[in-house]
C-alpha cells in the first residue's frame, strides 16, 4: 500500500484538513532528512518527519500506514511522537505569558492602558 505524506498527516490528525497538510508541505514546513517534502511523497514505515505547526516543531515517526482518518484514540497505533518535552513546555509558557489578567469589574482597558500594555510586551 502506498500513501502520500499529505494524506497520512491528515489521517493521523496532525492537520485538520488535507488541504492544510498539502499547504504545509508546499511551504516547506514538513521535512524529511533535512529537506522539504512535496505533498506527493510516499510514506514508508519507520520514516521520521519534522513538522512545524503553529510555532511548534514536532517530530513524528511513522509506525503504520493508513488511508483513512482515524479516531484520536487510535492515532498512537500509527504514529510515534518524538517531540522533546521542552518544546511543549516552551509553547505552554508562551501561552501563559501572552494572557493578560484583569481584575473583575474594572472593565476594558482604556486606549492609554492598552498602549502601555503593548509597549510593555514589546520590551
The dominant shape is elongated
| Unreliable runs | none
Percentage of residues in strands = 15-25%
What structural category arises from helix and sheet content?
alpha+beta
User: How many domains make up the coordinates?
Assistant: 1
Report the total helices: 4
CATH class: Alpha Beta
CATH topology-level fold name: Structural Genomics Hypothetical 15.5 Kd Protein In mrcA-pckA Intergenic Region, Chain A
CATH architecture: Roll
Based on CA atoms alone, the radius of gyration comes out at 19 Å
DSSP strand tally: 5
Largest beta-sheet characterization:
5 strands, antiparallel
Mean pLDDT: 90
> How are helices and strands ordered from N to C?
HHEEEEEHH
Helix content: 25-40%
N-to-C span: 53 Å
CATH superfamily: RNA-binding S4 domain
Reading side by side through the largest sheet, how are the strands ordered?
Answer: 2-1-3-4-5
Can you walk me through this structure?
The chain is α+β, with helices and mostly antiparallel strands and 123 residues long. It has one domain (5-122): Structural Genomics Hypothetical 15.5 Kd Protein In mrcA-pckA Intergenic Region, Chain A (Roll), CATH 3.10.290. The protein is 34% helix and 17% strand. The protein contains four helices and five strands, in the order ααβββββαα. The protein has helices at 5-11, 18-26, 85-98, 111-122, and strands at 30-32, 35-36, 48-53, 56-62, 79-81. Strands 2-1-3-4-5 form a five-stranded antiparallel beta sheet. α1 (5-11) packs across α2. It is elongated, with a radius of gyration of 19 Å.
Amino acid at each position: 500500500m502506498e500513501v502520500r505524506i499529505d494524506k497520512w498527516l491528515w489521517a493521523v490528525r496532525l492537520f485538520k484538513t488535507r488541504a492544510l497538510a498539502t499547504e504545509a508541505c508546499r511551504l516547506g514546513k514538513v521535512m524529511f532528512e533535512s529537506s522539504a517534502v512535496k505533498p506527493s511523497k510516499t510514506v514508508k514505515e519507520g520514516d521520521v518527519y519534522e513538522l512545524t505547526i503553529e510555532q511548534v516543531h514536532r517530530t513524528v515517526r511513522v509506525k503504520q500506514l493508513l488511508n483513512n482518518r482515524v479516531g484520536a484514540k487510535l492515532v498512537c497505533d500509527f504514529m510515534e511522537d518524538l517531540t522533546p518535552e521542552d518544546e511543549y513546555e516552551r509553547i505552554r509558557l508562551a501561552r501563559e505569558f501572552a494572557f493578560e489578567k484583569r481584575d473583575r469589574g474594572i472593565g476594558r482597558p482604556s486606549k492609554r492602558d492598552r498602549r502601555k500594555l503593548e509597549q510593555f510586551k514589546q520590551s
